[in-house]
C-alpha cells in the first residue's frame, strides 16, 4: 500500500472513528497527523512498541519513503507542466 492509499483511508478520520477502526489504521493516522504537525516520528520506537504491526509499519514506512522521494524528484525535475487553455 502506498502512503497516498493510507492517507485516503485513515488520515481524515476523527478520533472517535479511529477508535472503532482497525488499530493499524489508527496508528498510521496518528503517525501522519504527527508528521503534518511537524513532529519527528521515532520509527524504531514505534516498531518496538507495536511488534504485532511491525511488518505492516515497515511496509508503510517504505512506501512513504518511495512516495516522498518521487515527490522530490518531480519537484526537482526540469519538466514543468503548463496547462493550455
The N- to C-terminal Cα distance equals: 35 Å
Proportion of strand residues: under 5%
Measured on Cα atoms, how large is the radius of gyration? 15 Å
Sheet with the most strands? Answer: none
Query: How many DSSP H or I helices?
Result: 5
Q: Give me the oligomer status.
A: single chain
Percentage of residues assigned to helices: 55-70%
Helix and strand sequence: HHHHH
The 3D shape can be described as: elongated
Report the strand count.
Answer: 0
Structural class: mainly alpha
The total domain count is 1
Q: What is the arithmetic mean of pLDDT?
A: 81
Poorly predicted runs are none
Descriptive account of the structure:
This protein is an all-alpha fold and about 80 residues long. It has one domain. Helices cover about 70% and strands about 0% of the residues. It has helices at about 5-10, 15-20, 25-35, 45-50, 55-75. The longest helix has 23 residues, at about 55-75. The N and C termini lie far apart (about 35 Å). The model has no long low-confidence stretch (mean pLDDT about 80).
Amino acid at each position: 500500500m502506498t502512503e497516498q492509499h493510507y492517507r485516503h483511508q485513515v488520515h481524515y478520520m476523527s478520533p472517535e472513528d479511529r477508535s472503532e477502526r482497525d488499530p493499524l489504521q489508527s496508528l498510521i493516522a496518528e503517525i501522519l497527523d504527527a508528521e503534518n504537525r511537524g513532529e519527528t516520528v521515532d520509527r524504531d520506537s514505534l516498531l518496538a512498541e507495536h511488534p504485532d504491526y511491525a511488518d505492516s509499519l515497515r511496509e508503510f514506512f517504505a512506501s512513504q519513503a518511495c512516495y516522498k522521494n518521487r515527490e522530490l524528484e518531480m519537484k526537482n525535475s526540469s519538466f514543468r507542466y503548463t496547462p493550455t487553455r
